[in-house]
Amino acid sequence: MAEGEGEVRRDMWGQEYRTASADCAAALDDYYAQTMAFGRGRGPAALRAAAADPACALATLHAAHFVGPRDRAGAAAFLAAAAASLGKATEYERALFRALSALVGEDRDTEVAVDRHFQLLREFPRDLMSLRRAQLICFYVGRPDTSLEFVQQVLPENQDRNYVYGMLAFPLLELGRMDEAEIAARKGLAINKNDFWSQHNVC
């Protein structure tokens, strides 16, 4: 391993990324956990990860996504840092860069972002963080049918995994398929009683 190149690690979904910093890895774990629990600390966790290792493409990409809606210049700076690290990045980090560049980059385009998230999840179907992001894109643009397609695409690879059934229940509820939404949500709660999307769908 070249000096400064960083160690290949796996995130909580099993995707490979590269960082030289244990603090960066810990902050990324916190960011994922906070995001899935709708915690207020998710943004600061993403920024801590990027600060701990500015050469970690995964960390700077998540930081770009966090600041993007409010600070386009900041998002551009984080994306530039990620781009500078792509030569030593993993395949997952490169795929995520393509998806997030369409979402928060200078030439942001929602349709392209949706298409690239479909591509990303075809290649990395166990990446539930990107599934959550894709569903939020669909929610903001009023496309519950597409949100459901995202979950259905990855569900065969994620049977009985934490959070996935809450993410299945949400678009079913939006589409008025109440009975199916409740079944999915209750399955999610059987796996994790603190799954907030599952809780929402049985309220």
Helix fraction bin: 55-70%
Low-confidence stretches: none
Q: Which sequence of strands runs across the widest sheet?
A: 1-2
Task: Kindly name the structural category.
Answer: mainly alpha
Average pLDDT figure: 94
**Sheet bearing the most strands, described?**
2 strands, antiparallel
Strand percentage lies at under 5%
**Rg computed from alpha carbons, rounded to a whole number of angstroms:** 17 Å
Topology as a string of helices (H) and strands (E): EEHHHHHHHHHHH
The tally of beta strands, per DSSP, is 2
Helical segment count: 11
Shape: globular
Assembly classification: single chain
Terminal-residue CA separation? 51 Å
- Summed up, the domain count is 2
Keywords: Repeat, TPR repeat
InterPro entries: TPR-like_helical_dom_sf, TTC38
Protein name: Tetratricopeptide repeat protein 38
Family: Belongs to the TTC38 family.
Describe this structure in words.
The chain starts with 6 loop residues before the first strand and ends with a helix. A two-stranded antiparallel ribbon has the order 1-2. The chain has helices at residues 22-36, 42-52, 57-67, 72-84, 91-104, 110-123, 128-140, 144-154, 164-174, 178-191, 196-200; strands spanning 7-10, 16-19. The relative contact order is 0.09. Helices cover 65% and strands 4% of the residues. With 203 residues, the protein is mostly helical. It has 2 domains: 1-108; 132-203, Tetratricopeptide repeat domain (Serine Threonine Protein Phosphatase 5, Tetratricopeptide repeat). The protein contains 11 helices and 2 strands; from the N terminus they run ββααααααααααα. The longest helix has 15 residues, at 22-36.
